[in-house]
Amino acid sequence: MTDRETLRARARELAAREAESFAASHPRARALAGETGRHFLGGVPLHWMLDWGTPFPLSIVSAEGCAITDADGHHYVDFCLGDGGALFGHSPPAIARAIAAQAGHGLTAMLPGPDVAAVGARLEAIFGLPFWQVTATASDANRAVIRWARALTGRPRVLVFDGCYHGQVDEAFVDHRDGRTVLKAGLVGQAPGAPGSIAVPFNDLGAAEAALAAGDVALVLTEPALTNTAMVLPQPGFLEGLIALAHRHGALICLDETHTIATAYGGHIARESLAPDFFVLGKPVAGGLPAAVYGFTAAVEAGMRGVLDAKAPGYSGIGTTLSGNLLAMAAMRACLTEVMTPEAYAQMTALAGTLADGIDAEIARRGLPWSMIRLGARVELVFTDTPPVNGAEARLALDHDLERAIHLFLLNRGVLLTPFHNMMLVSPATGAAEVDKLVATLAAAFDALLGAGDRP
């Protein structure tokens, strides 16, 4: 077995070679990056687009199904899928038709249209919660839920979990280190001082109860599985126990399924028959068009009406002008009725299992100390021989040198992974041939790291 430091050194060498190859084979992307750099930070409209590890960003001219084509004419099988925004494939025909039809009849008016009732009925049928609101992003939805929870409970604090991800939410930018809640490293422009939240280890009901016992927590906000580190799955009984603890101590609880919607039809909440007070879903709910939803119980809705009736006139601080716009609602209706179906999930999860098994076999064949984690249509390669159980263990499993080398190797051979870690998504448009290509190319990347690989 090759030791980790040797693998890391080889990874740096491999990444350097792959970066040179990328630069040589993408002259149009290089030129476009120079042009856009005159007006956009780093030559991209969102600085995250620089996180792929390439010398300059790809420039995409088309994306359909599970395939992407760049400005240099290279074709890619996409297992990133917009980090989940295109979970059901790029531009599903039903959603594309709905967007085109609505575009000629208005994009936004700050008034509801006839799609709203149908969307609400589908959301309740799929996820079980009777009441809903629409936002532009999951970040907005989580921020709204936090404000509602504080208004309903009269309490100030939010309980989150070390390693969590809830978008651009200040209360979630914390880690649990040495028994304390601290701000995440790498933040830009964060206001000094505590953000009104407390972080505890995931899968630790004792730590959660100790935090809740103080009686000042308004909301427990969690993903059903940690997804923005090396993926961490919930241990049996953890989520059910967490919901019970929150209610016992007078707090509300929200499950943010923006990433774990890949688990199953209806998400983790439906598969495990969970009963939170709030539920958040963003990214794929409108096929990748900016939109998100948050659902809540009848008891919460009654409390919300009481808060609104009692407050002074004026802006509530919850909501944005483009939330629930006509275009987003048309896309959401098409997604919920024609695209996000049990049949799609059956295909996605079965093929994701085939993918995970194939990579597992290649890992075992080479004796690498790594493992695969799977959650429905979402699978992830982690650089430990056993899956992590909390955020601290997940951080130890991350290795940016290995990630960058593997991602560049795959990209140069026509396969895209999510740039932030080794996460792979399978869409309804993905087929066995695409899965086979990923497994074979990943096996070649392993060989390159072990000293037996080729160069593109």
CATH T-level fold name of the largest domain: Aspartate Aminotransferase, domain 2
CATH class placement of the largest domain = Alpha Beta
Helix content: 40-55%
Over all CA atoms, what is the radius of gyration? 22 Å
Terminal Cα separation, in Å?
Answer: 26 Å
**Dominant shape:** globular
Number of helices: 14
Oligomer type: single chain
CATH superfamily of the largest domain: Type I PLP-dependent aspartate aminotransferase-like (Major domain)
Major sheet: 7 strands, mixed
- CATH architecture call of the largest domain: 3-Layer(aba) Sandwich
Number of strands: 16
Spans where pLDDT lies below 50 across 5 or more residues: none
Please indicate the percent range of residues in DSSP E strands (runs of 2 or more): 15-25%
InterPro entries: Aminotrans_3, PyrdxlP-dep_Trfase, PyrdxlP-dep_Trfase_major, PyrdxlP-dep_Trfase_small
EC number: 5.4.3.8
Enzyme class: isomerase
Protein name: Glutamate-1-semialdehyde 2,1-aminomutase
Brief characterization of the structure:
By secondary structure, the protein is an alpha/beta fold. Helices cover 41% and strands 15% of the residues. It folds into two domains: 4-78 and 342-449, Aspartate Aminotransferase, domain 1 (Alpha-Beta Complex), CATH 3.90.1150; 93-339, 3-Layer(aba) Sandwich (Aspartate Aminotransferase, domain 2), CATH 3.40.640.10.
